[in-house]
Write a structure and sequence with these properties.
Order of helices and strands: EHEEHHEEHEHEHEEEEHHEEHEHEHHHH
CATH class of the largest domain: Alpha Beta
Strand content: 5-15%
Structural class: alpha/beta
Largest sheet: 5 strands, parallel
């Protein structure tokens, strides 16, 4: 193995952190460039690496779910994001949610003290010039949704030649001590309350009148307008709650405020429910699940204090809208995520056209394996399309119209059911997922054991 070639990685978010750690652990010298200590982005609040800006959840750990399947593959590749996530986990049912401050600090300490990683604090304006400066043969751009204006301009001028932005939104966080717990109750969706165990989610029930008044105020509340030159193209599964409210009075009641599975201790189901998820182990703050929004700060406080139990609520962090960045991978990149025009320049993470923390980290690992193969004198390799990682790559490389996607079973090849399985209508969907997950795990294991690197 010839691991003397250096790799420049720009961005220390999910993708950049996992890519840097993977390569460093495999003996590659890494220069990790991050500009947060010089200038934080509008959605950032920490100076440490691996910051989770939208939510503190890394999604499901269920091995038969799309996210659980992807985590299985990431664990095989030694994901730092998952290691730090488990070490700094907070209760969230079957999901992996983290104390985002401790999680970010953990990632920073590991990367900054690694013998094969050199951290440079720089607002990158030209990746190729920076790679030359640090004598790096390969470059990975992993700047994700918070790519700086300078680097966005370079990508647009040199790589894309077109606009590469869409919008995302952040949910607010509420101070636990400011809530009236007499009006709230703990309950995890669909799960029975176990004796001596406090459920992971706190719930605020609304009756029909409270719900309809709340929706009306969401719609008429003052919003932060997008700049005149920007086209607000939102990711469909992360829409601002106020935008969803405009689609119809019942839209929220069938999405983020769905009461199903959240009956109270007496078995009563509310008309609608606001779910809160812990931000840290101490339970000092809660994230309003699904409540990313475009409201002005003043209006957020006014409208969210209409929620039962929130009358005196205070918010350490309010919601906001921020610009995301991604490019047309199918048009501009090779399957290993290298630029067609600059073969030693790679893109990783959300900027390639995936959505979500876990997906971004996974793409960082995917690109890092491809770069390591090149360093070791091997050609790039296609991941099996029936694996989670292979399905993600296949999606962004074949989708006619670029649209970021989370991992889901719809991206994997279909499975064939036996006649008796098809007849089991009640469990047919579950059976399909179990078969697809088993097939994916077996496929990835065989692929990995053949000698991926």
């Amino acid at each position: 193995m010839n691991n003397k070639k250096k790799v420049l990685i720009i961005g220390a978010g999910m993708a950049g952190s996992d890519a840097a750690y993977f390569l460093a652990e495999n003996g590659v010298e890494v220069v990790l460039a991050e500009c947060k200590k010089l200038k934080k982005g509008p959605a950032q609040s920490l100076q440490t690496f691996g910051e989770l800006v939208c939510t503190n959840s890394l999604k499901s750990m269920d091995p038969n779910s799309g996210h659980g399947l992807l985590k299985t593959e990431m664990d095989k590749l030694g994901s730092l994001v998952l290691k730090a996530g488990r070490k700094n986990a907070v209760p969230a049912g079957s999901a992996l949610a983290v104390d985002r401050v401790a999680f970010s600090k953990e990632i920073s300490v590991v990367l900054e003290t690694h013998q094969n990683i050199t951290v440079v604090h720089e607002d990158v304006t030209d990746p190729i010039l920076l790679a030359t400066k640090h004598e790096c043969e390969y470059t990975i751009v992993a700047t994700g949704p918070l790519t700086t204006d300078n680097l966005s301009k370079w990508i647009k001028d040199i790589i894309t030649g077109e606009d590469l932005h869409f919008y995302d939104a952040i949910a607010p966080i509420v101070d636990a001590d400011s809530l009236d717990l007499e009006k709230l109750y703990f309950k995890d969706r669909y799960e029975d309350v176990e004796e001596d165990k406090i459920p992971d989610y706190l719930n605020a029930p609304l009756n029909q009148e409270e719900y309809e008044n709340f929706v009306a105020e969401l719609i008429k509340a003052d919003k932060v307008p997008a700049a005149s030159f920007e086209d607000a193209n939102y990711f469909e599964s992360c829409l601002p709650v106020d935008l969803m409210a405009q689609r119809g009075v019942d839209t929220l009641r069938f999405s983020c405020m769905k009461p199903v599975g959240l009956e109270d201790a007496e078995g009563k189901r509310a008309y609608a429910v606001v779910q809160l998820r812990r931000e840290n182990l101490a339970g000092e703050a809660y994230n309003l699940v699904g409540f990313q929004n475009r409201l002005t700060y003043k209006e957020q406080v006014r409208v969210f204090q209409m929620i039962p139990g929130f009358e005196q609520a205070s918010f350490p962090h309010l919601g906001s809208v921020h610009r995301n960045t991604f490019l047309n991978a199918r048009k501009l990149l090779n399957e290993d995520m290298s630029s067609r025009e600059f073969p030693r320049l790679y893109f990783a993470g959300q900027i390639t056209g995936v959505e979500g923390y876990t997906e971004s980290a996974a793409m960082g690992l995917y690109v890092a394996t491809q770069v390591l193969r090149k360093i070791n004198g091997k050609e790039s390799i296609s991941f099996p399309k029936d694996t989670a990682l292979g399905a993600l790559v296949n999606y962004i490389m074949t989708n006619e119209k670029p649209r970021p996607s989370n991992i889901n079973f719809g991206l994997l090849p279909p499975v064939t059911l036996e006649r008796h399985q098809r007849r089991d209508r009640k469990n047919r969907k579950k059976i399909k997922k179990e078969i697809a997950a088993t097939r994916a795990r077996e496929s990835f294991d065989a692929f990995f054991n053949e000698g991926l690197f």
